[in-house]
Write a structure and sequence with these properties.
The complex is a heterodimer of chains A (459) and B (134). Chain A has 459 residues and is an alpha/beta fold. In chain A, 37% of the residues lie in helices and 22% in strands. Chain A has 16 helices and 18 strands. Chain A starts with a strand and ends with a helix. With 134 residues, chain B is of the alpha/beta class. Chain B has six helices and five strands. A five-stranded parallel β-sheet of chain B has the order 2-1-3-4-5, sandwiched between helices. The termini of chain B are close together. The mean pLDDT of chain B is 95. Classes of the chains: A alpha/beta (459), B alpha/beta (134). Chains A and B meet through α2 and β15 of A and α2 of B.
Amino acid sequence: MGIHLLVDFGSTYTKLTAVDLEKEDIIGTSKAMTTVKTNVLDGFNLALEKLKVSCPDMPEITGISACSSAAGGLKMAAIGLVEELTVEAAKRACLGAGALVNLVFSHHLSRKEVKQLKQADIDIILLAGGTDGGNKECIIHNAKKLRDADLGVPIIVAGNKDAADEIEEIFDASNQEYYIVDNVMPKLKMLNVKEAKEVIRQIFITKIIEAKGIKKAEEQTGEIIMPTPEAVLLAAELLAKGYEDEEGFNELMVIDVGGATTDVHTIGEGFPKRSEVILKGLQEPFAKRTVEGDLGMRYSANALLSLVSPYEFKQYYEYDETDIEQSALKRHENVEYLPDTDQERAFDNALARICCDYSMSRHVGHVEVVYTPLGNMYYQTGKDLTDIQYVIGTGGVLINNEDAKEILKEVNHKSNKKLELRPTDPVFLIDRKYILASMGLLGQKYPKLALKLMKKYLV
Amino acid sequence: MKTVVIGVIGADVHAVGNKIIDHVLTEYGFNVVNIGVLSSQEDFINAAIETNAKAILVSSLYGHGEMDCKYLRENCDEAGLGHVKLYVGGNIVVGKQDFKEVEQRFKKMGFDRVYPPGTNIEDAVKDLREDLGE
């Protein structure tokens, strides 16, 4: 028994967490700038040095697990048939595997869309369309378009199984790398993303890591096993479900306010809580992740501002004299910026509150009233999260912020957003040590220990 | 196996007939995609696109069917479902009206088959076989 080291190659920092397997505790953490452009191991070694300095008595490192979101993370395009159905299913498969979904297309791909695919920096394409036995004409058309485009990017085919043979022939005739997996929507509204997610992870481990210059790290860390957001989702799932006799927290939510995106993860069924509510739309994944690319503290500060009017912004921010646009631009242009005055901190807090509030509106389910001869009925689209018991905050702006719990209250039920099924009275916890991704990794080998540590360090 | 989409349109929650239609059509060898009660035109159309359905069978019992079914044909055509047959049945208009007139009205709206209350589902099966071919 010794130290199990967890490594997260982030876009800015390479973060290490050292877990003493015998003492069952985290004995140290450290970080250094990620150095993808030169040699990714430089940053790692620097962080390791720092760790050794801060814990001189550290036992021998006996195991290492690593995840990565460096060099822009895992970027995917999702293609399907109907927007609310197979397109949405494809998107959910990508998000659940820890990817960013940069491009989304429905129905027949046009030349313009193929051009967009060519120009975008995409790592993997997920191609869906049609239920099993359903429409196959569209996915076959799209497969041909993709073959002709010769994008040099792996394609995962997760559509109507009736089209599989024909698509195999289409891609075999060229050098296109492709994988045929189970349909993401085999029956109407039924979501089935397991195999697609697994293959995304496999491609990430074998190909993407290398393309992004992170492969070299494997000389020291062993295989990088997943994208960082997937590690966070797995940590959340473990914490919710529990392991053996170690109880979990049941339904919970993790909100990760980052520099470029705000990620929301919820673990729970989210079924309607009342009999007069009818569930609509595609089946929701038990562990659901959504990513908002226009809600972030730094890189996306500009985009965020375009969502709120100056009047709305003032609802989150008390200073009058600030030039809001300038302050946002400053953050957008200098992503390393750290606030140095109370006013700047308040501005950051306002951004964080907007990230929480808006990402919640998009993540939670909504109800809609239908007036029927039998009285009012309700449609529910998405998950009912009103009974969620724990909301866990993570990400730079929250973990070192004494107002973090105040900021997180933005996720709560609001009188002006009555139709959104937001949490009503959850307990707020903060990932002060920034360990969630690490615990997702640790949970792969030592689930019980990872669970204990999360219960101890999420406060 | 021919795929058909069935469901109850609009703010109508009558689930029993819907279940019976599902059962009988399945017995007769159709691949039934049942989108259930409280379904919008959009739900019918999206389901038909993804499942490559050959016909959409709309049920309605609460009297507002005529309003709910308005422009369904046009919306189907718009969504590339011009070839899909549209059937409607049940208590589809307000009050007691002469069925001949009702049938004419719905046919004008683009429905291929229109059924009065109390129709045997087997009659619709016969029509389906005729319209879709065996």
